[in-house]
Specification:
By secondary structure, the protein is an alpha/beta fold. The chain is built from 14 helices and eight strands. About 50% of the residues lie in helices and about 10% in strands. Strand 5, helix 8 (about 155-160) and strand 6 (about 165-170) form a beta-alpha-beta unit.
């Protein structure tokens, strides 16, 4: 019997969630995603640390060095994979639509100037109201976007109505929240899996063109429960576990028949900024996890800046930021 990983690929596009070049060469995924946390983790490896030094040396500022780092990570990953790479805008711009647009344009232009086709670039932006508006403008310009840190249907619908290319709902982080707040959980099902199922069904019923890429898994069961989702971005540890398993993987998510003709069930379309923020605030989990995620990406970006200033020291007590 084929491995569980090969079976899963029949139902979903399997994407590698890593900035580790060696893992990408090992699994040869069609696409890859990365973020400041994954780049920070990858930089602990000696070979990657040398790469980081080489691409950031002689930069005129820390900001320029950080931009070079993201650019060259993207270029290196695109040498390995045949498809798209998702590269994240500085999380400190999550509430600055103009800054997000400018950063994204600069990054895409730099990649295109180095021979990368625009179709292979996905710009990752946090799914705040401001981030969604920035993504809407970028998509009109032909810049494809991946809206990340999606924890609620209201975010997902706003992204689809903005015609973004892809969203990344975070399965495991939703589970994390409910494990800390057991009084809020209803039933025994994994709330992160249920959230993606709900988004998937709504998207397919409405005929939205935005793809769904489930992310942030805590165990293999979450991944297998979402077989059939458009894309699944999976860490190397879980890719290895799936590769070494022969457990049968049936499809779990299906596109409803005559999807676009069915009536809407959720009154979440056409929200303005105030209504969006109110709906998001009413969802304690989504509100908390979105802002927590932005804070974490900001901290890891600042940790990368610290390493740039220190010349990428060897990992050691007091010398290397904690992940």
């Amino acid at each position: 019997m084929p491995s569980s990983l090969e079976q899963l690929k029949r139902w979903s596009v399997v994407v590698a969630d890593t900035g580790d070049f060696e893992q990408l060469r090992r699994f040869r995924p069609p696409e890859a995603t990365t973020n400041p946390s994954l780049i920070l983790r990858a930089s602990r490896q000696e070979s990657c640390r040398d790469f980081c030094r080489s691409v950031t040396q002689n930069a005129h500022s820390v900001g320029e060095a950080l931009f070079r780092l993201l650019l060259h990570f993207g270029l290196e990953i695109l040498k390995i994979i045949p498809g798209r790479v998702s590269l994240e805008v500085d999380a400190r711009l999550s509430f600055d639509p103009d800054g997000t647009i400018a950063y994204a344009r600069e990054l895409v232009d730099a990649l295109v100037q180095r021979g990368v086709e625009r179709e292979r670039i996905l710009i990752k932006i946090a799914a705040t109201w401001e981030g969604i508006r920035a993504a809407q403008e970028l998509e009109k310009e032909g810049v494809h976007t991946n809206l990340t840190l999606v924890f609620s249907l209201v975010q997902a619908i706003a992204c689809a109505e903005a015609r973004v290319s892809l969203i990344s709902p975070f399965v495991g982080r939703i589970l994390d929240w409910y494990q800390k707040h057991p009084e809020a959980k209803q039933g025994e099902a994994d709330p992160g899996v249920l959230s993606v199922e709900r988004i998937f069904e709504h998207y397919k019923r409405q005929g939205y063109g935005t793809q769904i890429m489930a992310a942030s898994f805590r165990h293999i069961g979450e991944i297998l429960a979402l077989a059939g989702c458009d894309l699944l971005t999976i860490s190397p540890a879980f890719l290895t576990e799936l590769q070494e398993s022969s457990t049968e993987v049936p499809r779990k998510l299906f596109v409803p028949e005559k999807a676009a003709e069915l009536e809407k069930k959720e009154n979440l379309s056409g929200l303005d900024a105030a209504e969006f923020q109110l709906r998001l605030t009413e969802d304690a989990m989504a509100c908390e996890k979105l802002h927590e995620g932005i804070r974490q990406f900001c901290r890891d970006t600042e940790a990368l800046e610290e390493l740039i200033q220190r010349g990428w020291p060897e990992p050691g007590l007091g010398e290397y930021p904690k992940i």
